[in-house]
Amino acid sequence: MQTLLQYKRRIFDDLNYLPEDKLAEVEDFVSFLKAKYRREKKNIISLEGLWSGVELGEDEIKNIRRKSWENLLRKEI
Fold first, then answer.
1. 44 vs 36, 47, 52, 57, CA distance in Å?
2. With contact defined as beta carbons under 8 Å apart, do 2 and 10 qualify?
3. pLDDT one-digit tens code per residue, 12-55
4. Which DSSP letter does residue 3 get?
């Protein structure tokens, strides 16, 4: 099994045998692969403090839970 360095060296050596006008195609393909496998930085949104200052009573919480379950049970799966 080849190591990463061996792969890179073999690819580099193979590039020397290509005609100059084909190097642009190789560059395009490598750019395509980079874009395809690029790791995008995910936006992480903090919800900390979202409910700060909001006070819900026990009855309000029960009502919200009941309505949520009713809506969930109405949805077709």
1. 22, 10, 20, 30
2. yes
3. 999 999 998 899 999 999 999 888 888 776 778 888 888 888 88
4. -
Distance (Å, whole) CA 68 – CA 52 = 22
Q: Do the beta carbons of residue 48 and residue 59 sit within 8 Å? A: no
Query: According to the model, what pLDDT value does residue 52 have?
Result: 86
- Terminal Cα-to-Cα distance of the chain (whole angstroms): 48
Tokens of 66: 């009941």
Dihedral class, residue 62 (left if φ above 0, else alpha if ψ from -120 to 50, else beta): alpha
Residue pointed to by tokens 């992480």:
44
